[in-house]
Amino acid sequence: MVVTGLLIAEVNVKTMCELGSGGVSLVSMATRTLGTVGVQITCWSYIFIHYALLVAYVARSSDILTNILGIPVWECASLFSILFGSICYFGSQQLIGAVNGVLVSGILISFAALVAVAAGDLHWDALLKANLQAIPGSIPIIALSFVYQNVVPVLCTNLEGDLKKIRTSVVLGTAIPLGLFLIWNAVILGTIGTPETGTDKIADPLQGLPATNGVVGPIVGAFSLLAIATSYIGFVLGLSDFLSDLLKLPSDRSRPLPYLLTLFPPLILSLLDPDIFFKALEFAGTYGVLVLFGILPAAMTWSDRYTTSSVSLNLPQLVPGGRFTLSLVIGGAGYVIISELIENFMRT
Q1: Where, by residue number, does the polypeptide cross the bilayer (predicted)?
Q2: CA distances from 212 to 107, 119, 200, 209 (A)
Q3: Which of 270, 277, 298, 321 is the right S-S partner for 326, CB 3.0 to 4.6 Å?
């Protein structure tokens, strides 16, 4: 996921240099490097992933807020969407950055409290168990969990194409959640995955974790809500910029249409069918994320580096390894997609 984020950044900066403007989205990048077919794949994959995850964020946040505030789900969903949607639309970059900083601080505090409380029942021997057969099936969910590439074009614009700063932001920005994920999984596998808890077969670890300690429930709710809020802001900004470019609208915020198209469909869908998230999540992770943020970044970079039609700007490459690295990315993502297709076909 770090590699594909850097590949997107590399193509994005080259596209900005060639066009002489910032605010370049994945559509412009695909148009320049892959042509009409690449644009169509990019558009549909991007829109589907973003809407599916925004629906998930609104649905989950409304459930949490309903438990906290005791008001109907539709009011909580509307409150969440309007509040954070307004921050994205009306707020300056400084305000959005400040809000996101506060949310991230809250995430770290609640996460530390969650780990401290839950780790009291940690069984280290449970961490020595492994199920290697589960690895292939977990890759799409892992990829979905680490999706951030949608905000890379915004990052490149904000950092004014400074490749050194962009590389540092992508690497460190991905390393932090990686560390949190490793700690989180250690706590989960070392507590609810033990025979003593009686929850080793539970599907959702968040449902089984409070059973180990009554204090965990409120902390989990706070942590989940803060994490959803930060992700929601990033996806709203990414999708609204994408729609602005797709609809050929100005890149400033004088036009509310991209934000209306970004905010209200997920809100409506989450209220009409709260289970739509679970129906779309597996498909989004397998066929959406691994295509849009797996195969396409490598394909765009390949075209940008090695086709005669691309203009050489003599910019440094953010990812080393040449064609071998790009082939490895495309082949790895393609293998997972094909494997999932065959497995789903065999099930039916």
Answers
A1: 37-59, 71-92, 98-120, 132-151, 171-194, 215-236, 284-302, 322-342
A2: 21, 10, 12, 6
A3: 298
Which amino acid is residue 304, in one-letter code? Answer: D
The pTM of this model reads: 0.77
Per-residue pLDDT at 160: 87
Residue with tokens 């850097």: 6
Work out the number of other CB atoms within 10 angstroms of the CB of residue 291. Answer: 21
240: buried, middle or exposed (CB in 10 Å: 19+, 13-18, 0-12)? Answer: buried
Classify residue 180 as exposed, middle or buried by CB count within 10 Å of its CB (0-12, 13-18, 19+).
Answer: middle
User: Contact at 8 Å (CB) between 276 and 265?
Assistant: no
Q: For residue 190, how many C-alpha atoms fall within 13 Å in the half-sphere facing its CB?
A: 18
Under a CB-based contact definition with an 8 Å cutoff, are residues 237 and 92 in contact? no
pLDDT at 81 exceeding the cut of 70: yes
Q: Are 262 and 54 in contact (CB under 8 A)?
A: yes
pLDDT-based confidence at 60, cuts 50/70/90? confident
13 in Cβ contact with 163 (< 8 Å): yes
Q: What is the DSSP string of 29-88?
A: HHHHHTHHHHHHHHHHHHHHHHHHHHHHHHHHHHHHHHHHH---HHHHHHHHHHHHHHHH
